[in-house]
User: Fold this.
Amino acid sequence: MRQQDWSTVRALPLFRDMSEENFAALMNAAFLQRFPAHVSLIAEGDLPDFLHIVVEGSVELFARHDGQETTLDIVRPVTTFILAAVIRDEVYLKSARTLSPAQILMVPARTVREVFGRDAAFARAMVNELADRYRGFVRALKNEKLRTSTERLANWILQEDRHQGGTRTIALDIDKRKLASRLGMTPENLSRNLAQLAAHGVRSSGRGIEIKDVAALADFAKPNTLLDG
Amino acid sequence: MRQQDWSTVRALPLFRDMSEENFAALMNAAFLQRFPAHVSLIAEGDLPDFLHIVVEGSVELFARHDGQETTLDIVRPVTTFILAAVIRDEVYLKSARTLSPAQILMVPARTVREVFGRDAAFARAMVNELADRYRGFVRALKNEKLRTSTERLANWILQEDRHQGGTRTIALDIDKRKLASRLGMTPENLSRNLAQLAAHGVRSSGRGIEIKDVAALADFAKPNTLLDG
DNA sequence: ACGTAGACTTGATAAAGATCAAGTTTCGAT
DNA sequence: ATCGAAACTTGATCTTTATCAAGTCTACGT
Assistant:
């Protein structure tokens, strides 16, 4: 990877505090790869070859079992993924595919583990990163076990609105079937749940969702920082 | 805490590789506390005061939302819990209570963070620990999203049998209502699901579960290392 | 040993969610 | 602009899970 492209990656909490030398060691071993949309990046069950960092585009993390498939997360720039598998050198628990054309920075797993062994600042940053991700999954499990599908959707809308700047107008950049899978429901039920939320201040048409009445929506959704982050 | 009690804790992967001096710093600040059964240890939403280590007895990690409660994990000796909250100094996402009389080693959170800052081996061990826990929650979420409640029970039986030594006779040491909550179902449905599994080689009576036909049970359960660990 | 509270089971019913089957809309390719 | 495939919606039905309501069992304290 060329040096002028390093800065955004260097700015990530995971790499911010490590030594210049060790960061260079990671980047020199890494390469930036372009992928078209809907291409498989990694498959659950395989051993990790690379630490992946989404630099551009979006990536779906999903898992299959017994003919079913579910979306576990959708990763956007600039974020690492499958860090836990790389550091433990154990098989991936998730598969990954591009949702859009994407640029992925790929750092050889061995290099990551080597640098991890000699750079204490990197090790400490990794602890913070993993602890944060861990908490994300705790929240996801609570969300799944303690809410109905309509409530999950309502809270997703509130959260997504905040991420998109709080304009109360959300533009979907993924298929609704993907959103349904991420929220743990079928596409059919996402449709019905959206229709249901009309009674709680939500208007939707095509790829747009509009919050007409935040108070009413929040009243129904019962957002909770211990579940929604 | 007295020095003769340190050895089992010192043997944990999390503490094994750190310097003698820093381990002593942790232990000298720590104290071993006895609790009766059914006592609250921590409450979600609070800021962490201590890293907890179950030395004896069993502890339930659970969460509440909107009048509902769900069990997230049951922790047995010798294991740390709420590590992620301690290291990030952020509010607990889970509550904890004793299920039986228990001994808990409590290490002040500040001490843990201090030692973490200066002992690289501890930081690296923490990465491994957190990565492992992270993967546990990924599996839990997959288990929840990709299986029916009866399948979750069937796989729990297979797994618990392995943990108890593969004798095909499981002795429950927790209430069935707790097990139901851990597996994401109501007590009523746990009863019905157990009855259902009679058709797949499982006999149960009171606190005992017997696997009469492992092949039949496995055939129904479809165990998968990417979900069950 | 007895009594009682709580745990467990079982049945009936309701709610939530999935599946099946049309239709309709959207969007990209020609 | 048109066509066709895929995405989306809506309705009907079925499965899964939760809730309500008895009952039975179990374990513990007196």
In short: Chain A has two domains: 3-144, 147-228. Chain A touches chain B through 47 residues (CB under 8 Å).
